[in-house]
């Protein structure tokens, strides 16, 4: 999201200056007005060399700071801010006691950015390998609503749940990964040593081999003679995929594909919607106008496809539609959730019911993760059975045919 430099005046007429991130200059001005300050000028800000370097490093990989360290930082920031400790003093203390050197360095640079007039969200955004876009977007909600302490504790619980999800997925995939690794090794052994040995035997047959056998022999010959092309092709595909996902169009399409993946797609969708519901509930409860809340929350879902649906809801609200009608048009919510949105909109308790939606989705995600291994194993067994059947038929069909011909000759 672009960054804008601004000058403004607060209620007492004192001059203010700094930076903030927004979709446009008009959106930046709206953010300032929501904080009770009057914008004087809003202009696009130029990224300095250090910021460009940090953004480039952020594209190379995910966060380099352990999740546990970021969880501890979030929890401590919540405690300090809730206790009334000024943010600069809180950051100074956490910089000195940070358990990770990279986090301590990032916190120190965030302090310097705040001293130069940047907002906290903009300062954190300069360190994409430490603070994810979701983390930054949530902090921005906290700055808009004036509830940073609550946002930090929510981020702590979010990081805790994300860690739980990763641990559950790793545990569920441990056995399938082992089986797949053994299958790959077995395929390499069969293609490099077993099938070539049988191919020499088949050369002595004065008959055409079955098509399945010919395919296996051809694949074995290709793997044995052109293995470097396979490795190079795999590396090229991986590099091309990363480059494609790095583009806006590629990321949008990949985020759409992820939601359609078997088994994992529904888990990703429910986790994303739980994140949206809780963030939206917090913004609405804090008094942020619904249209502006949707604009900010769209950045917290960490899925461009879902974000585009949320922005579609915002556009509908701007045309005078209800939240329910926008949610129906988005096509991403279940009937139960749509009913809760309808009741919440009619009763004026949309924030409370959205919180319940977030809890409901989170419980469903936890259940899906606990049963993930049992959902994967049948698919793995069927695939393994088909592979063994193809290999066995391809290798032994010629021998079986030869045996039948020999028996007929003897008869």
Report what the structure shows.
There is one protein chain. This protein has helices spanning 25-34, 49-60, 67-82, 87-97, 101-115, 120-125, 133-145, 148-202, 211-225, 227-246, 248-258, 264-285, 290-297, 304-318, 323-330, 335-347, 350-370, 372-410, and strands spanning 3-9, 15-21, 38-44. The protein has 411 residues and is mainly alpha-helical. A 3-stranded antiparallel β-sheet has the order 2-1-3, with helices on one face. Helix 15 (323-330) runs antiparallel to helix 16 (335-347). The longest helix is centred in the middle third of the chain and has 55 residues, at 148-202. The protein starts with a strand and ends with a helix.
Would you tell me the structural class of the helices and strands? mainly alpha
Low-confidence stretches: 52-63
Overall mean pLDDT score? 83
* Separation, N- and C-terminal Cα atoms: 82 Å
Number of helices: 18
Compressed to H and E, one letter per element, the order equals: EEHEHHHHHHHHHHHHHHHHH
Strand order of the largest sheet: 2-1-3
Largest sheet: 3 strands, antiparallel
What share of the residues does DSSP label as strand, in percent? 5-15%
> How does the overall form come out from the CA principal axes?
elongated
Proportion of residues in helical segments: over 70%
- Rg over alpha carbons: 29 Å
Count of beta strands: 3
Q: Describe the oligomeric state of these chains in a short phrase.
A: single chain
């Amino acid at each position: 999201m672009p960054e804008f430099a601004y000058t403004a005046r607060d209620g007492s007429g004192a001059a203010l200056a700094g930076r903030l991130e927004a979709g446009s200059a008009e959106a930046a001005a709206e953010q300032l007005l929501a904080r009770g300050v009057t914008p004087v000028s809003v202009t696009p800000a130029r990224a300095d060399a250090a910021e460009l370097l940090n953004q480039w490093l952020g594209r190379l990989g995910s966060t380099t700071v352990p999740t546990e360290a970021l969880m501890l930082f979030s929890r401590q920031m919540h405690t300090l801010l809730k206790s009334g400790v000024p943010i600069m003093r809180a950051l100074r203390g956490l910089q000195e006691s940070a358990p990770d050197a990279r986090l301590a360095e990032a916190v120190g640079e965030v302090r310097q950015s705040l001293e130069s007039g940047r907002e906290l969200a903009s300062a954190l955004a300069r360190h994409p390998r430490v603070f994810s876009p979701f983390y930054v977007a949530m902090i921005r909600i906290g700055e808009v609503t004036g509830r940073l302490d609550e946002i930090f504790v929510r981020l702590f619980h979010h990081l805790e749940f994300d860690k739980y999800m990763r641990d559950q997925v790793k545990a569920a995939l441990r056995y399938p990964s082992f089986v797949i690794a053994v299958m790959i090794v077995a395929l390499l052994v069969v293609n490099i040593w077993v099938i070539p040995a049988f191919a020499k035997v088949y050369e002595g047959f004065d008959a055409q081999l079955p098509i399945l056998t010919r395919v296996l022999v051809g694949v074995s010959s290709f793997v044995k003679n052109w293995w470097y092309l396979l490795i190079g092709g795999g590396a090229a595909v991986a590099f091309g995929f990363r480059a494609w996902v790095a583009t806006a169009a590629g990321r949008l399409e990949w985020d759409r594909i992820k939601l359609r993946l078997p088994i994992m797609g529904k888990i990703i969708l429910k986790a994303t919607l739980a994140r949206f519901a809780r963030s939206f509930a917090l913004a609405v409860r804090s008094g942020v106008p619904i249209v502006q809340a949707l604009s900010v929350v769209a950045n917290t879902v960490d899925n461009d496809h879902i974000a585009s649906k949320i922005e579609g809801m915002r556009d509908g609200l701007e045309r005078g539609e209800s939240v329910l009608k926008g949610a129906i048009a988005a096509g991403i919510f279940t009937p139960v959730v749509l009913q809760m949105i309808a009741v919440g909109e009619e009763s004026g308790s949309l924030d409370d019911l959205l919180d319940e939606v977030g809890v409901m989705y989170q419980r469903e995600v936890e259940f899906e993760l606990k049963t993930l291994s049992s959902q994967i194993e049948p698919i793995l067994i069927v695939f393994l059975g088909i592979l063994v059947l193809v290999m066995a038929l391809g290798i032994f069909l010629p021998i079986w045919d030869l045996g039948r011909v020999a028996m007929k000759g003897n008869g």
